[in-house]
Every structure is written in structure tokens, then in C-alpha cells.
Structure prediction request, 221 residues.
Amino acid sequence: MLRLRAMERGLNPKEAYDTLGKDPVLKDSVRNALVSEQGRLCAYCMCRIPRADVDTSAHISPIVLEHIVPRNPVDGRDVGQGLDYNNLVAVCHGNRGPRGTRTINDLTCDARRGNTELRKVNPCVESTLSTIEYKADGSIQSSDSDVLFDLEATLNLNYSSLIRERKSALQAVIDEMEMLLFDEALLKEYAESHLKVFLEETEEKTPFVGILVWYLRGFVR
Prediction:
């Protein structure tokens, strides 16, 4: 979509991004397509987008177009990644707030990441996410040190509010399953059926579904 427009106008990558990136109709079209493809979840933290707690009065975008490979990487390479639809994801506002109300430690997702390249995590490549696990307290983990660095240091996905939200989502499932603890067969049936539902969601996925899938898989192995 973006690259085709650039080719039609004979623009180089920088010219194309500067010109087409300011086209509100085109940007909205790309943003809406990504949000739909992602089941209305942030590609990084998996919250619902747009979040209800965005302070739009502070001119904060509720949904951000994020480049997986930075548009302006430290090494300066530019192979048109700014216009590559496959290099774009939709993310939340990253806990941005009015000027002076946030520190770097309060930011998450793209707001925290800035122009830092991810070492290994790519939300569009399932194999890069295979080592991700969770804890019952809602924290996100990985046995791969590079993946863990991406999750914690670069994206700040163990920020306190995200941990609480993941734990809350998980607790709702745990509460339902506790009523079945007396029957192992029913417990496994519940886990299998709900896991199937979560894995097959497309149009509107369950917020923080990652921790739910992780938990339920523990009952069907």
C-alpha cells in the first residue's frame, strides 16, 4: 500500500515516508487494517487498543503505527522499511501522559523502546516468541536472555500496571476453573475448549490472551 504509492510517485524511501506519512487518509487506512488483523490488541503488551485510559486531551495518539525494524536505525541503513507494511504493527499509547507526568520507567511498548532495535522479538514471527512464559503473578518471562532483554529492558512489559492487568485476566480464568477442581476430566475439558477458543480468535481477541494460553496449555499437555 505505502510502497506502491511511493513507486507510483517515483519517491525514494525518505521522500516517500515524509510525503505519504503525512497523508491522514492513508495512515488511517493502514492503522485500521493493522488493528483489525491483530484482533484489536497491542502487538507488544496485548492490551485492547485503543485503551480507555488514553488522555486524548494531551494530544496523545491512542493507537501508534510502530516499525518493527526502526525507520531510522542506529546503523543508518534504509532499505525502505518505513514503507513496508510487513514491518508495521499497531501498538498502544505506551502509557504516555501529559508533558512532565512520565519518566522513562513509566513508559512501555514503543514509547519505552524509542529507536532501539529489538534483539530477537518480532511479534509477527511466531518462532521468536516460543520461549515466552508467564508467572502466576502476571509477570512475563523467557529462558532466552535476548528475548527477556527485549521484553523487560526494551519494551518494559513487566511494568507494574501491565503485571496487574495480566494477573487480573488470568484470575478470571482461574476462578472459573476452581469450580472444576473436583473433576479432573471436566477440568481438562474446560482447558481444551477454552484454549481452542483463544487460539482461534481473530476479529476481537481477548486482552492479554498470551498469559491465558500459557496457563491453559499446562492442563492439556
In short: The radius of gyration is 19 Å. Residues 160-178 form the longest helix (19 residues). Residues 1-117 form one domain.
